[in-house]
Amino acid sequence: MALLAGLVVVLFLFRPGVFRLHNRISSSIGNALGRRVTLDNVRLHALPRPGFDLEGLVIYDDPAFSAEPMIRAQDVFAAIRLRSLLRGRIEIATLSATEPSINIVRASDGRWNLATLIERNSRIPAAPTQKAPSENRPAFPYLEATSARINFKVGPEKKSYALTNADVALWQDSENSWGTRLKAQPVRADFNLNDTGQLQIDAAWQRAANLRDTPLRVTMAWQKGQLGQITQLLTGKDRGWRGALDLAANLEGTPEALAIDSQASIQGFRRYDIVDTRNVRLAAHCTARYQASTGVLADLACESPAGGGTVRLTGSLATKAVPQTYNLSLQVKDVRVASLVELAHEAKRQLPADLIGEGLLNAEFRGLRSNSKPAQLTGRGEATGVQIKTSDGSNSISLATVPLTLVSETGCCAPEANRKTTRKKEPANDSNPEPSEAHLRLGPAALTVNASTPVTAGGWVSRGGYTFFLRGDLGLKNLFRLENALGIPAAQPAAEGLAKLDVNISSLWQGLAAPNALGTAQLKNVRAETRGLNTPIEIASATVTLGPALTTIDKLSARTGDVRWTGSVHLPRHCAPNCLYEFDLDADRLSSADLAQWLTPHPSKRPWYRILSSANQTGPSPLLAAHARGRLRVAQFALGNALATQVSTELTADRGKIVLTRLQAQFLEGQHLGDWTIDASIDPPEYRGTGTLEDVSLDRLSTLMNDAWITGNADGAFEVHTAGVSSRELLANADGKLQFAMRNGSFAHLEIPGAPSPFPVYRFSGALRVKDGKWQLSAGRLESRDGLYTVTGTSSTGALDFTLTRGDERSWNLTGTLAKPLVRPASQEISKDGKPDPTTKP
Prior knowledge:
Layout: H1 2-13, H2 21-33, E1 37-38, E2 41-45, E3 51-59, E4 71-80, H3 82-86, E5 92-98, E6 101-106, H4 113-122, E7 142-154, E8 157-172, E9 177-188, E10 198-206, E11 216-226, H5 227-235, E12 241-254, E13 257-271, E14 281-291, E15 296-306, E16 309-318, E17 325-336, H6 337-347, E18 355-369, E19 376-390, E20 396-407, H7 416-422, E21 439-449, E22 455-462, E23 465-475, H8 476-486, E24 494-508, E25 516-529, E26 537-546, E27 550-560, E28 563-572, E29 581-591, H9 592-599, E30 627-639, E31 642-654, E32 657-667, E33 670-679, E34 686-697, H10 698-704, E35 710-723, H11 727-732, E36 735-747, E37 759-771, E38 774-784, E39 787-796, E40 799-806, E41 811-816, E42 821-825
């Protein structure tokens, strides 16, 4: 004991001859693995267990697989089996590596470097890891690694897949059997994934002449993986699904005849943007036999409980065949429609929370493909007693019996009647709605909403997406209920009426795209209300065409109050909130009072007969938020007491700012042409206008003023800016100018001494300037029978203050009002320049 203690002390102090073991240890490991091994340094380790600390261990791969090392570890501890020292040799009991990097490579011929290593070691007559004390043969060491990273390569290319934080162990369990254990987290180098779950594998295999005949038993479990991150791990893209994935599988037999028994479940399955407490669970149990050499999965039997019934898949599948061959049967037995609605809640947004389903689904399908022949898909089924409704029973959608038909890729099995239906020309639909790929046809079936007149419904579902169609007459209220039940995002105004539908609703599975409706709807006798309008919109008839990017309303015949409208409207889709509406509309008559009513806010109080609105209406008119442009024609436009006819303009509206370009109209028996801007986004609204007036009847103007004070015709060019709601406010706030020319008329109330009465006018021109309610005339030139007059002055709040100076240098002051003008001679004093002085008082 004293000698042994002294030896230990010497080893602690001097550690002699350790460097001589460097080559011996690396050669020993290399011979055991059949690979070249290098070491940077070797240090003797005495306590707590004798052994060696190996630094910079590199185990190179077979050059046939890769030039990169198979294993690289900076720190490795090799524990010595003490009994081997008594026999005069060094035998490693345990080889432990910390944070090694391991490369698993698949060659172009399908062989794996790890498989060839296992084959080699299975032929070495080593004793079990836990050998008996009397055993003289070297024992297979217990190999382990902690916090390892396992990389995967295909030829020279390193894949993005890897296993991190891996704890790996390998040992020889008995004379002819080995065992291994792995616990790791799957990751991808090109994504930041941290919730992929934990992968555990326990495997045992026995010695055999070749790998294909090696008896093996593998237990695998993949636990608590987040479904979205797992789909991103396996496919490179998060498919948008969430849930906790648990997978367990037992494999037993040989690679040539491997029995597989697996179970998989997803707890809390849902779409990424749906959060609720339904906690839907999907589960399946599968058994099969797999043959590695041929890649055939035979005797496949998968069963999944579903809503009180079962879904069962049986048959065989050749995974290595090109093209892939299979013989599969799918049986759906007594699956409740209620469970499908529950699943739809987790897969589809905007479904009503209280939506439930009734009915049973039964079907049997078969898929067969052999050699190079096209796939043959056959089978039928039906959903009986289908009813989708709200929990309180207020809304109900009934489909009675829905036939199901599996259609092959060639489409040979489609009934002739259905083939004619799909080829019907539809402006907004595909000329051949059913896809060329294999798909499941649903319907057609009779659909009723709240006991309405039945319409025809049906569609198809394929691997790429789905399409459902609706044909027939349906009330708008029932149509909106159907949209709510299907979770279709669409505007749903307070409206009632009838629509004749020919619509397809389709979407792709990829990217969880929202469904898109295409087709036509014939509207009849529709009455709708819009927030901000006191007057409902009544549509006698219209054709609505739903295109991929545009909704078109053609052949419109409608009215708002006493205004009748015809024309077309184009509404872009999928553009919110920056949608630009385009229109081409005609109105029989319109008034400034109508515009004021449409563009100004209204109180929330509703009369008793407004039964269509579901809530009080407050806030500004929705017309103020519209972004639209188009052509507007109005047969008659009433501006106060004035009436304009044949009005046409190019109108642009952008959030309350309305621009009328090239506004043409017959006004006061003359012609108006100009550009106007109305800013209704502010209070009070502002108006700006420029333009011309040609051949305006002043007789008509005096009639509108209820005083025949002027006759004749006039032309003018104007520029005005004003604000207000009433005509009094508009006149008081007006700021502008008018260049005018009056012809062949008279002033009925104007009496100038020596001039005929009423005062005749051959031509009267000048420039009027208005600001703050005050009108100022400058450069006025009036030609009458008795001479040429110069007219200047102002008018404010109806009071006149003008000076008329005739060519013979006589002047008159004009005061009073238009209805009762007063004319007084002005002073005839002559100014220094030789002209009459108009500033001299009479």
